[in-house]
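seq as requested:
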Amino acid sequence: MSCLLITRNLPPLVGGMERLNAHLWQALARRGPAWLCGPRGAAALVTPGRGTLEAPVRPLWRFLLATAWNALRLARRERPRTVIAGSGLVAPIAWASARLVGARCVAYLHGLDIVVDSAIYRALWLPLIRRCDLLLVNSSATAALARAAGIPAARIHVLHPGTELPASDRAGGAGARARSGLGAGPLLLSVGRLTKRKGLAEFVAGAFPRVLREHPEATLLVVGDEATDAAGRTGSGERARIEAAARAAGTLARVHFAGRVDEAELEHAYLAADVHVFPVLDLPGDVEGFGMVAIEAAARGLPTVAFASGGVVDAVASGRSGTLVVAGDQSALAQAVLDALAGRGAGDEASCRAWAAGFSWQCFEQRLEHLLDGDAAP
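struct tokens:
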């Protein structure tokens, strides 16, 4: 089953979508003949397939034009049976390439791929996304958005992103605390690009003060940086906004920004933390499609406290891998954090790991195989 994957979201870019597409590519390369159209630098960092053509990431218009040229050339030369778009951004390119050679067109959609606030996107991209033969979506929330956008339900199938399932290493976490000077107090962790949707500015002003009243030595460790690689650069200036909110609330001294870290440091951060906070907001034209970091935290035995927003409801099992509260209720979020620190109701290490096991990359690949072969339920 030969495939052509087209995506902007691959290493050397960093983020959850990039990890997802890297695993998607690896699965396709193992499955049979596979070709890739991706960002510049990807060929040296992903599992080899039959061939890779790259395009500069910036500016976005240049990436789209170069990738369209690359994809149409590859499709005409290699004649793959399936063409896959790694996101809605490149779905029109995948559709055109597939139609050129009579192949099946598949697109993997994230929440923002459907609700992005752009008249041009809605007018030009969504009609072609609706014409794809198979739509893979990252959560039940994204599936609902896809149906609301006029995509036939029969073409929509949920394919949750996956995670590694590492062995427990609490000693490594203790070492990370010592190296970073984080102390022995309760450690709250936030992981991800700094964007308004992540809700950190509201958290440090609304929920964190109450946590600090009961645990004055608590620290919020923020891992991640501005979303400068995102297609819309939606995160520019977000760190300053978080800092301003924390300063006004008197919590800035207990917020530690780690910035972008490597995989080893991220692993240690997960293991060092006591609770992962994920205060994602419901914003018009922006949505959290799934919440991979909640699954990654659970795989390390770390519970997540989060708002029940968007696809996060698929990623967190209340009482097993964390706690979900009503979106926007900072008081309830603070109480859930306090309960988790006290060992009440959020799930223990064993239950977190058991939940994450259902989202392993092996499960992802098996589900992908069934969907591409056409024998899986919606």
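The longest strand covers residues 34-39.
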